[in-house]
Known about the structure:
Elements: H1 7-29, H2 36-42, H3 47-54, H4 57-76, H5 84-98, H6 102-115, H7 119-122, H8 125-134, H9 141-167, H10 171-188
Amino acid sequence: MEKRKTQAERRAETRQQVLDSACHLFGKNGYNNTSLEEIASNCGLTTRPVYHYFGNKLALFQAVNDVMVSRILDIQHQPRSGDKTSRFMAIWEAFLNLCDDPGFRQVVLIDSPTILGRERWKNSPVTARAESLLLNHQQGSDGLFRQKLLSRMAIAAMAEAALMIAEAEDIQQAKQEAREVVNLAINLL
């Protein structure tokens, strides 16, 4: 006989169903073309659980964005060998591979900057990790400021490259171009 699920397990399962449905539909149709009714219907629910677990569409989108961004963090935490530049380029390459996923591109690269704001990226764990890989931690405030400025500029440029990849007609060609340009830029740091 199958063990009966607890109320907490059923709630967690329902919340996850809503989140999975939202990931799929926001990724497929975009934020503006997805309604909470569609998300609820897609997982066989009414909108009541959507509002109960997430409050509103924006909060649900933030949760979806967090799921997608966690994929970047997973890449960043994988052990890598070599110097900081080669580790950074390996992470950049893995990030480019995430850009193959249309849902990832739609949520993280196209909708997120507009819906959640670009400021969110500045303070994100993704940016902090990338910055730590780019910084040489030179002694003295002048050297550290310069390195921090250069790393922020590189991160901003790579975010723009990712957006261009998301909008490109030929994703693979765009990734190759971005790979080459970022490699040149990182070597200048």
